[in-house]
């Protein structure tokens, strides 16, 4: 049995939950390390079972906290890892 490394999510979100902007959203205070969540950053989002890569589109102050809008990047995150591995080999 192969051991699996636990995925560390930068910011959890529901990829099915978009607001009026058309982007998936989450609250900054739910981030593992809020300093990583900056506009333009590529982050690991969603959940540990089905992680996705996302680009941080905006940070907006709301009464409930800072709302983070995320653009979900296409493809399987493992495909990005494989491409980067080829790049650096």
Strand residue percentage: 25-35%
Main beta-sheet strand count, sense and barrel state: 5 strands, mixed
Structural class: mainly beta
Oligomer: single chain
What count of helical segments does DSSP give? 1
Helices and strands, with pairings:
Elements: E1 11-12, E2 24-27, E3 42-46, E4 51-62, E5 65-72, H1 77-87
Care to describe what's here?
This protein has 89 residues and is mainly β. Helix content is 12%, strand content 35%. Strands 1-3-4-5-2 form a five-stranded mixed sheet, with no helix packed on it. It is elongated. The model has no long low-confidence stretch (mean pLDDT 91).
Give keywords.
89 residues, mainly beta, 1 helix
Summed up, what is this model?
The chain is mainly beta and 89 residues long. It has one helix spanning 77-87, and strands at 11-12, 24-27, 42-46, 51-62, 65-72.
